[in-house]
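Can't paste images in this forum, so I'm doing it all in text. The chain is below; anyone willing to post the predicted structure tokens underneath?
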Amino acid sequence: MVLGETGLGKSTLINSLFLGDLYKDRRIPDAAERVAKTTSIEKKTMDIEERGVRLRLTIVDTPGFGDAVNCEDTWKACSAYIDEQFRQYFTDESGLNRKNIQDNRVHCCLYFIPPYGHGLRQIDLEVLRRLHRKVNVVPVIAKADTLTTHEVKKLKERILADIEEHEIQIYQFPDCDSDEDEEFKQQDKELKACIPFAVVGSSTVLEVAGRKVRGRQYPWGVVEVENPKHSDFVKLRTMLISTHMQDLKDVTQDVHYENFRAQCISQISQQAIRERRYLRIKLKRDSGPHFENSISDTDRLLLQKDEEEETAKYFAMREINTTLKDQRDGAFRLRKRFEQNEETNRWLKINFMKMRKGCYRVLG
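Text version of the structure:
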């Protein structure tokens, strides 16, 4: 999934990453259409080959993201799409044909940050707070060719500081195994140091010193997309489709999907408990005094279990409330003692000053 406001070069970067033209049929909306623009979801599928292995890659784009005047709910379409893919996978996983499940879950979200800001904006923080527990977020500084090397470094530091301050969980690179070769360890270290990736995208082929390169021509020279001195493009591509593709899928399965699955199971269990409680009340009302004789042993056991759960929940909540009350009372007593100590210290200080003045008079 690629997220970011219009004009940050998302489509260009995706085309550059996967050497294709996924958006050749897209029409650029005019100003009138953008006034009431809402975030939509566009899916593009392509086949790529990495080290002899053919992969089917689905790009989920979000045109209209952040374009409206009121961006308060701009994250909802993205969050709903991620949840829907989890829900579909959960349904398929619970069915009979588990061997042929099509995995459409979002394994990575490239979040594009504009280069002209001073760190993360309020809209960035809000969107990341809503999504960081659902998907692997990889922050990307767009159009890095508009910044100097020093500016890129400072912007990266500010973004990482904002991420830490607001406790946003971005994708964490796994630690290398001790038996990995030194070259891979060095590559992994360089990838970690690049976050957030400062990238440049271009599908234009230029000739530089007899070499054909993809880049952008400026009056002062050429920015080469795949030159590590000019951008982190190569490192981002390496991470996405080579070194960390499987880990992105594993984290999605083991962390994000398992969290969603646990919520679904909890909701199903709560719904079943509510239904049993409703049936019990209805049966008791309809049966009247003959209630105990009209239910089977299985139903009686279920009802007994519900009562035990309710009783246990009641005592657990009472214990929690008692503990909270004790903590509040303890905090109140500590505050009163602190205030009394402050008052005592103030009194001692005043009397000490009086005594010292008296000593000065005697000595004088």
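The longest strand covers residues 42-50. Residues 2-199+231-244 form a domain with the Rossmann fold fold (CATH 3.40.50.300).
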